[in-house]
Amino acid sequence: MFKKVLIAEDMDFINSGIKSQLADLGIAQIDYVQYCDEALLKLKSAKLNNQPFDLLISDLSFDEDYVEQNIQSGEELIKAVRKEFPSLKIAVFSIEDKEYTVQTLFNEHKINAYVWKSREGLRELKKAIQQIFNTESNYISPQVAGSMLKSKAIEIVEYDIFLIECLSKGYLQEEISAILKEKSWSPTSVSSIEKRLKFLREHFNATNPTHLVAITKDLGLI
């Protein structure tokens, strides 16, 4: 079983519940933090001291308070952690159920488990931790597993979200092309942008760009 686990969660009562489940698994060292910046620093410090963590358990939402943070969400934290620690096991414990978020966490940030916070969430988290320790397979809660079905998990990437956000701001395709060139993203041609937006409209059954923006807002993509 994992020997050293870090919990990134800003609610004390949830921290207590997670620690209780981890203790039942016989995990020797359990640390927790309430801020994303602190989580990343703690992981780095442990590595420098040759006492690295085996597992990170993180929420996605962190309430803002008087402490200024560079990393303000669990997804940003996971992205930064995965860059620094490519082999660290990461489990998400969150009430978030948006398809794009779940897909991005697994496909781009390579998390190992996604457990949906629910009445049985803590017990399910325990099950997920056992699975990702004993096997190489990922764990995903049944409530959000549909997000990863092949019929739904099309390649909606950051580029697509950027195009739709530009539409929501009223940019023309020529203007979007210029912005993409400034950001060194590709493809940048107006024809490529037009083709991708057409694909997105067809996938989301949108009748026009305005309808596409409305649908993706409802889905929580932008």
UniProtKB/TrEMBL annotation:
Q: What name is this protein filed under?
A: Response regulator
Q: Which GO terms describe its biological process?
A: phosphorelay signal transduction system
Native source organism of the sequence: Gramella jeungdoensis
| Superkingdom of origin | Bacteria
Query: Where in the sequence is 4-aspartylphosphate found?
Result: D59
Q: Which InterPro entries match?
A: CheY-like_superfamily (IPR011006), Sig_transdc_resp-reg_receiver (IPR001789)
User: Could you tell me which residue ranges the Response regulatory domain spans?
Assistant: 4-132
Q: Which UniProt keywords apply?
A: Phosphoprotein
